[in-house]
Amino acid sequence: MLCLDLDTKGAKLLFQIFNEPRLCAAIADRITFRCTFSQTGTESYRLQATEAEHHTAR
């Protein structure tokens, strides 16, 4: 199982490098190909932040 553990600084750096939506989609596609996802039953901070960002952008 692949686990990528990034702190806040590392995550910000990663998103500065990969800020092109099409490139990010391609990377996510390759990382998740033939993966099994497990639902943990917890709320996702990242999903909530993304939804809030999209909501305020409108």
Structural write-up:
This protein is mainly α. The chain is built from three helices and no strands. It has helices at residues 8-17, 21-32, 45-57. The longest helix has 13 residues, at 45-57. The mean pLDDT is 77.
Brief write-up:
The chain is mainly alpha-helical and 58 residues long. It has three helices and no strands.
What key phrases describe this protein's structure?
58 residues, mainly alpha, globular
Give the helices and strands, then pairings.
Blueprint: H1 8-17, H2 21-32, H3 45-57
The helix/strand order is HHH
Number of helices: 3
Structural class assignment: mainly alpha
Q: Please give the largest β-sheet.
A: none
Share of residues in strands: under 5%
Radius of gyration: 13 Å
Choose one word for the global shape. Answer: globular
Measured distance between first and last alpha carbons: 38 Å
Strand segment count: 0
Average pLDDT level: 77
What's the helical proportion of residues? 55-70%
